[in-house]
Design brief:
Layout: E1 29-37, H1 39-48, H2 57-69, E2 74-83, H3 94-106, E3 111-114, H4 120-130, E4 133-136, H5 137-148, H6 152-167, H7 174-181, H8 195-229, E5 234-239, H9 245-253, E6 270-275, E7 281-286, H10 296-301, H11 307-310, E8 314-320, H12 326-339, E9 350-355, H13 362-373, E10 382-383, H14 392-403, E11 408-414, H15 419-428, E12 430-436, E13 442-448, H16 453-459, E14 464-468
Helix pairs in contact: 5-6, 6-8
C-alpha cells in the first residue's frame, strides 16, 4: 500500500483473503473508508457552520463499519483517510485515489462505503476513478432503512427518502429497478439510462407516496386522538442507535420487540401499555434510533413517526454508558431533539437512562454513581441494565413521579354496592390509598390526570380535592 493514505497504524486496515468477487449486492466485498477532516480543520468548519464532527476517528470508523455490517456486506477492510480539506470534484486528493484504486484491485473490492456525504458529482467521479461502486453515509443509512422498514408507513417514508436522494443522482434507471427488483435501493440493479424519463417517473412516484403517506398520517392522527380520549400518559424512548432502547422496552412492557446488538434494529414505532408502580397505565413508545449526521431527508421523512416523542409526557433518553463515545452520542441525540422542538435539558420531562450497567467495570460504575448522586433528586439519571433488570424499579418510580407532576389528588367515597364505580377508579386513576369501612364501603385517595378530572367529578360529586401535584 502506498504512503499516500497516511495510515497512522496498521490496526486501522485489515483484510481477509481467498474469497471470490460477488455481484455488487448483499455480501459484496466492501472497503469502508473514513475520509475525515483533521481535528483542526473540523474545528474550524464547526466554528463557522453546523458541519464538522469532532468525534474520535476510530470511533467514527467503527460505527461506519457497524452500519455496513448491518446490511450483511462483506467488510474486507477499513481505513481512515485524514483530510485537510475536501476536493470539490472527488472529495479525495489524487494521490489518495491512486492508493485506493491499487488497494481495491489488490483485494478484489467491489464496493466502497465512504463515511461522509458526497455530492452526486463527487460520487460519480470516484466511481469512474476507482472502477467500483461507491456509496456515501447517507446512501448507506437509506439502504439500511430500506431493508428494515416493515410497516406501511415506515416503508413509504423510507422509499420517499430514497427517491429524493436518488432523483438528484439517478445512479440507476427507475423503470428497470422497479421491474427487476420490485423495490428501491442502491446496492444492485441495472445501469444509468433514460435519465430524463427516469427523473419524471421518480417524481410521479414521489407524488403518489406523499398522497399515500397523507392517508396513513390521518389514520395515525385518529389513533392518537383516540389515545388522548383514553387518555394514558405517553412515555417515549429515544436514544442513539444500539443504546438498548428495544431491550429496555421489552423489559418494561414484557413485549418481544426485536432487540439485537445491531445498529438500527428498530425502525418502525411500537407502542404498548405498561403499569406504573401504583397501577396506573401508561403508553410506552419505542422509536427509531438516532445517529450522528443523520440524513436530513430521513429526519423529515420520519417526523410523523416521531410525533409520539413530540407529544410525550415523559421522554426517556436511553444512553449506552458503556460506550466510549457516550457523551458525543448524547450530544447528537440532544441536537435532534432540539430539531423536534424538545428541550433535552428539560428534566421535568426528559429522564436520562444510563443503560448497560452490566457492562461496566467497578471503577467506571463508581464514577458514574458519583456523577448521578451529584444531581438533585428530580434531575438524577437512572443507572439501569435492561438485560439484568438492575435499577428498573427505581426507573419506574421516577417515571411515575414525572407523570404525576401535573396530576390531581382527590379523596372519594365508594358505596358497598357501587362496584362499577370502584372498577372505574382502578381503571382510570392511580390508587394511592384504600380503606374499607365496617359497612363494606371504601374511602380512597386517587391521583388523576387533569383531562379526566371532569369525569371523576361527574361520578363522585362528593369528591374532595386533596392537592394539585406540582402546584
Amino acid at each position: 500500500m502506498k504512503s499516500g493514505l497516511n495510515i497512522p497504524s496498521s490496526r486501522q486496515v485489515a483484510f481477509n483473503s481467498g474469497e471470490t468477487i460477488p455481484n455488487i449486492s448483499v455480501g459484496a466485498r466492501t472497503l469502508v473508508i473514513g475520509p475525515y477532516l483533521s481535528n483542526k480543520a473540523a474545528a474550524k468548519r464547526a466554528a463557522h457552520s453546523t458541519e464538522g464532527n469532532l468525534r474520535d476517528f476510530d470511533a467514527r470508523l467503527e460505527e461506519a463499519v457497524g452500519l455496513a455490517s448491518a446490511i450483511n456486506l462483506d467488510i474486507v477492510g477499513s481505513v481512515i483517510i485524514p483530510l485537510v480539506a475536501p476536493r470539490p470534484a472527488t472529495f479525495l486528493g489524487t494521490g489518495k485515489i491512486e492508493d485506493l484504486d491499487a488497494l481495491c484491485k489488490e483485494n478484489n473490492i467491489s464496493l466502497i462505503v465512504a463515511d461522509c456525504s458526497l455530492t452526486p458529482v463527487q460520487q460519480r467521479n470516484l466511481e469512474r476513478a476507482l472502477h467500483v461502486k461507491v456509496i456515501d453515509r447517507t446512501g448507506l443509512i437509506l439502504e439500511i432503512f430500506g431493508q428494515r422498514a416493515r410497516t406501511k408507513e415506515g416503508t413509504l417514508q423510507v422509499e420517499l427518502a430514497h427517491l429524493a436522494y436518488q432523483k438528484s443522482r439517478l445512479v440507476r434507471s427507475w423503470t428497470h429497478l422497479e421491474r427487476q427488483r420490485g423495490g428501491f435501493g442502491f446496492l444492485g440493479g441495472p445501469g444509468e439510462t433514460q435519465i430524463e424519463a427516469d427523473r419524471r417517473l421518480i417524481q410521479d412516484r414521489m407524488t403518489r407516496i406523499e398522497r399515500d403517506l397523507d392517508a396513513v398520517k390521518r389514520t395515525r392522527g385518529l389513533h392518537r386522538r383516540g389515545r388522548e380520549r383514553a387518555p394514558y400518559p405517553i412515555v417515549a424512548l429515544v436514544g442513539y442507535t444500539n443504546a438498548g432502547k428495544s431491550t429496555l422496552f421489552n423489559r418494561l412492557t414484557a413485549a418481544d420487540v426485536l432487540a439485537e446488538n445491531m445498529l438500527f434494529a428498530t425502525l418502525d414505532p411500537t407502542a404498548r401499555v405498561t403499569k406504573l408502580p401504583h397501577g396506573a397505565p401508561a403508553i410506552l413508545s419505542d422509536t427509531v434510533g438516532f445517529i450522528s449526521d443523520l440524513p436530513t431527508t430521513l429526519v423529515a421523512a420520519f417526523r410523523a413517526t416521531l410525533e409520539d416523542v413530540i407529544a410525550a409526557d415523559v421522554i426517556l433518553h436511553v444512553r449506552d454508558v458503556s460506550h466510549g463515545d457516550t457523551e458525543a452520542q448524547a450530544a447528537d441525540v440532544g441536537h435532534i431533539l432540539k430539531d423536534l422542538g424538545i428541550d433535552p435539558e428539560d428534566r421535568g420531562r426528559v429522564i436520562e437512562v444510563w443503560n448497560k450497567a452490566d457492562c461496566l467495570d467497578n471503577a467506571t460504575r463508581q464514577t458514574l454513581e458519583g456523577r448521578a448522586d451529584s444531581h438533585p433528586i428530580e434531575m438524577r439519571p437512572a443507572l439501569v441494565s435492561a438485560i439484568t433488570g438492575e435499577g428498573i424499579p427505581q426507573l419506574m418510580a421516577t417515571i411515575e413521579s414525572r407523570v404525576a407532576r401535573k396530576s390531581i389528588v382527590y379523596a372519594v367515597a365508594v358505596g358497598a354496592a357501587e362496584g362499577g364505580l370502584l372498577n372505574w377508579l382502578y381503571k382510570d386513576t392511580e390508587i394511592l390509598e384504600r380503606r374499607m369501612l365496617n359497612d363494606g364501603s371504601y374511602r380512597l385517595v386517587v391521583r388523576i390526570l387533569p383531562e379526566k378530572e371532569a369525569r371523576l367529578l361527574a361520578r363522585f360529586r362528593s369528591a374532595r380535592l386533596v392537592r394539585r401535584e406540582g402546584a
